[in-house]
Amino acid sequence: MNTARIVRILSLAVQVFLPSVKDMLLMWRIARSGWFDRLYYRNQIRGLHPIWRLVPMRHYLLRGERMGFSPHPEFSPQGYLRFNPDVAAAGLSPLGHFLTLGLAEGRSARSSRASAAKVEVSPPHDGRIPRFDPKRRKAPFAIHLHLHYPDLWPEFRDILITLDIQFDLFVTLTWQGKKTDWLADQIAEAIPTAQVFTLPNRGRDILPFVRLINAGALDGYEAVCKLHGKKSLHRNDGDTWRRHLVSGILPNGLATQLDHFLSDSDAAFWVADGQRYAVKTWWGCNREKTKALLRRIEMDLPNDHDFPAGSIYWAKPLMIGMIKALHLDDALFELEEGQIDGTLAHAFERGIGAIAKAAGQTVRQSSELRAKIRPSPRAPRFVSAFYLPQFHPIAENDAWWGPGYTEWSAVTSGTSVFPGHLQPSRPADFGFYDLRLPKTLAAQAALAGRAGIDAFCVYHYWFGGKRLLEEPLDRLLMEPDIDFPFYLCWANESWRRNWDGLSGEVLVAQDYKPDFETDLVASTLPYMQDARYQRPDGQRPRFVVYRPSDLPAPEQNIARMRRAWRRAGIGEVEIGAVAFHVTGEAEVAEGLFDFWIEMPPHGLVKNESYVFGGAAGNLMNDASPVPGFSGVIYDYSKIAQLSVDPKYRRTLPSRTIAGIMPSWDNTARRKVRAHIARGGSPATFRKWLREMHETVLETSYRNELFINAWNEWGEKAMLEPSQTFGHLYLDVLSEVTSNKHGASVNPEQVHA
Q1: In which band, very low, low, confident or very high, does the pLDDT at 113 lie, cut at 50, 70 and 90?
Q2: Contact indicator for 545, 578 with CB cutoff of 8 Å
């Protein structure tokens, strides 16, 4: 080795391993900031010397920055200098200035203004995506590819035709005239099953993805992959970044990696390594738009969360459904003007990470999928849901509320009382059904059963011999072939007009006449003698008392009821009661009932839960309710958090069945006097349900789960499919019941 070469090696070693104090300070600041991605940086430079590969940050500071290489996918040194000429004139390091001064001054990590000369103007085009048939045949997976630049198709074609999974391909193309038609033909020739749509140049890759979701194209898949060209006129590293992002989620052996992703219940998105960003560092100009986006599903910005950067990822079905629930349309997306920050598309990228966090999930990077996934707790042994038989006209409701009144009359009149309030709530699959039709009950039970619900706990309205709302079950008894598992809950409270926030006038009084127990038991016999009446312990039919404290002499009343059932030939009955009605005119001994039912939100709303109407007043700021609202609003997530708190659970009676609610909002009934659990959604329901599954269900009575409710539409406590969330609540429930039933909800197989 000659002397000159030795000198060069020693000089390089000094540069690499003996930085100045100033450089050491800058390196420390960069390392802490998270703005240097080692893997991303090294992948930009082919043939990088092994020494530099060991210390890529030193290479960047000594050489790479001047050469125009980016330290991170979201930082362009050239763009920063171009639009910050004061930094360029001073000869400062772009990244060094950004971290010491620029970030605090609000300067963009990339160019803050688009070059008007570089904005491509596409011809006008009214592209449409038709609504998809949910019953069509599907592959297990879907891939959506959005292409703005036709020259990228060969690269994606070569990747897609070698994948070792079955997938349906959806391609959206930016309409650019005849060359787009030519590209569509090329795609059809290479992959004949691909469905190709040409769309106007709006919303980048995000709006085409949203439009496919809104059309139902991406429903019903085990996972959905989102791809796009990742090529920008304001970047010189788009090809490198794209290839890193795509290869990270479409690797060799994709099927195995997908299995890891699907088996990881905590994963919502799968991204390439280095593409999980912390939003606190990457807000840019997008905080307010993200806040407005999440408000569309009653969600606040979390204090911190990660998001899938680069917009190339795999997504679980819950995330696809929650995106659909945002109800984004074309008009919300800005016209294309070359913006690189501050648009709805940028806010969307950050917002979906917040939705994942609300669901108790996260963004997984490729290398993390190899980690061992913790085993799931066992499924609940028996799942019940309260069931309201109110949805049909009766003479009494005609007299009290007007001709033809049913629960739907209230539901459809619900109005939004604060920004983003999800009212009114409307049914999806079954429409505004009439429960006098047994086929409706059959369809409900089929859908519930596939989600893991074992029985409906149907309200039994008996008032001293007078029956109300009995027709649905009575007609069911005449249809023995309909599979509708159920048992009764005696709704033993008087009906009052304050049901809708009015006078409190008693409409039907609950009359506890002497020996009422015999007549009550007689009213239950036709149902208990039906083969579909449930015996969760395998022996005793179950019966629930809604308000045990309203009984005049609970101990004597329950004993007489038990004797009456025995005399009627039913035998022993398993009697339970709702746990929150344990204080009142009569004292109820804890041991009087065989079990108790936890019924959220009752007993869970504490001072710290309120965001409006509590002791702290109004905490909703710019999301405050309309003037004149005199109800209360509390945080759904805080209710959920308290529910799994060991201190709270110790206050419940022993032998309590753990309870949960999908949401709660009686605006439809009480209008401006409503009680609202703000933020109830399939995402927050999932987080609550998973935490309950992992902690509470082990100590629940017989490992059972009780849900409030299946169809309380007037209180928005329903699992039934809605126009807002579709089947998502049922899909979430099936996650914790799948070990028992071996199947999740398939909306294509269940129709009224």
Answers
A1: very low
A2: yes
d(CA 398, CA 421) in angstroms, rounded, equals: 30
3-class SS at 469? coil
Q: Can you tell me the distance from the alpha carbon of 265 to that of 176, in angstroms, rounded to the nearest whole number?
A: 41
Could you tell me the sign of the dihedral formed by the alpha carbons of 83, 87, 91, 92, in that order?
Answer: negative
Longest dimension (CA), the chain: 113
pLDDT band at residue 744 under the 50/70/90 scheme: very low
3 state DSSP class of 251: coil
- Kindly state the average pLDDT of the residues 731-752: 61
**pLDDT, position 456:** 98
Residue with tokens 């089947």: 727
Which residues 6+ apart lie within 8 Å of 476 measured at CB? 438, 441, 482, 484, 532
Q: Vertex 641, ends 678 and 728: CA angle to 5°?
A: 55
Q: What is the CATH number of domain 141-368?
A: 3.90.550
For residue 489, what are the β-bridge partners? Answer: 459, 544
Pairing of strands 313-315, 223-228: antiparallel
Decide if 395 contacts 280 (C-beta within 8 A).
Answer: no
**CA neighbor of 70 nearest in space, from 203, 232, 285:** 232
Q: What is d(CA 484, CA 480) in angstroms, rounded to the nearest whole number?
A: 9
Q: Domain boundaries in the chain? A: 16-105, 141-368, 382-738
- Give the type of residue at 672: V
Cα 225 versus chain centre, distance: 18
Q: Which of 2-16, 65-79, 306-320 has the lowest mean pLDDT?
A: 2-16
Q: Are 644 and 692 in contact (CB under 8 A)?
A: yes
- The CATH label, of 1.10.1450, 3.20.20, 3.40.50, 1.10.3470, for the domain at 382-738 is 3.20.20
Give the residue ranges of DSSP H helices in 471-577: 471-477, 516-528, 554-567
Residue 365 and residue 600: Cα distance in Å, rounded? 36
Q: Kindly tell me the sign of the dihedral angle through the C-alpha atoms of 114, 116, 121, 124.
A: positive
SS3 at position 215? coil
How many CB atoms sit inside 10 A of residue 691's CB?
15
Whole-number Å distance between alpha carbons of 186 and 169: 14
Which residue type occupies 21?
A: V
Return the half-sphere exposure (C-beta side, CA atoms, 13 A cut-off) of residue 23. Answer: 13
Q: What local confidence, expressed as pLDDT, does residue 69 receive?
A: 77
For residues 529-556, average pLDDT: 96
CA-based end-to-end distance of the chain: 84
**Do 37 and 73 meet the contact criterion of CB atoms below 8 Å apart?**
yes
- Check if the beta carbon of residue 714 is closer than 8 Å to that of residue 430: no
- CB neighbour list of residue 174: distance below 8 Å, 6 or more residues apart: 122, 146, 147, 148, 180, 198, 199, 200, 201
621 by Cβ neighbours in 10 Å (0-12 / 13-18 / 19+) ranks as exposed
325 neighbors 724 (Cβ within 8 angstroms): yes
Kindly give the interhelix angle for 287-295 and 344-358, rounded to the nearest 10 degrees: 60
- Round to whole Å and give the CA distance between 75 and 44: 14
Alpha-carbon distance of 584 to 546, in angstroms, equals 13
pLDDT one-digit tens code per residue, 353-369:
999 999 999 999 999 99
Among 258, 139, 270, CA closest to 195: 139
Question: Two tokens at 684?
Answer: 């927050």
Mean pLDDT of the 305-329 span = 96
3-state DSSP call for residue 239? helix
Q: How many of the other CB atoms lie within 10 Å of CB of 516?
A: 20
Residue range 375-398: mean pLDDT, rounded: 92
Q: Is the dihedral of CA 551, 554, 560, 563 positive or negative?
A: positive
Residue 752 has, within 13 A of its CA and on its CB side, a CA count of: 16
Could you read off the pLDDT of 472-504 as tens digits, one per residue? 999 999 999 999 999 999 999 888 776 544 446
